[in-house]
Amino acid sequence: MHVGEGLDPPSLNINGNVVEFVDSVVYLGSTVTNNGDLKPEIERRHTLWSNVMQVLRKPLWRQQSISHTTKMRIYNAAVLSVLLYGTETWLLTGTLSSRLDSFDSRALRSILGIH
What is the pTM of this model? Predict the structure, then answer.
């Protein structure tokens, strides 16, 4: 990856092989882009979060025999950690904060059965 917009990356050869430059890469579980854009990482986190919510829907969220307290503990440990991984490095804007709040609200409504 080459950081900097509008600049042509220098060619890089290693043992006669040309190294291809990319616009983004997943590094330590987070998407890093050459221009610092957070949108791909937020979309990726949302997809992972949605997958965890879907996997837990039938065996956990829909079970009436499991208390709301237990469901909330599992949500905080297993679901929020997927959504919020790496957010300490994000520049939190109003739009980003609103998006994260909407993800959280939607999940809580689903878990508690509020439509």
Answer: 0.70
CA of 77: how far to CAs of 7, 46, 85, 99, 114, in Å? 42, 16, 12, 20, 21
Residue ranges for the chain with pLDDT beneath 70? 1-9
> Do 32 and 44 sit in the same domain of this protein?
no
Reported as a single tens digit per residue, the pLDDT across 5-26 is: 556 667 788 898 888 888 888 8
The tokens of 53 are what? 């919510």
How far apart are alpha carbons 71 and 60 in whole angstroms? 7
Please tell me the distance from the alpha carbon of residue 74 to that of residue 55, in angstroms, as a whole number: 13
Same-domain check for residues 21 and 56: no
What's phi and psi for 14, nearest 5 deg?
Answer: -125, 115
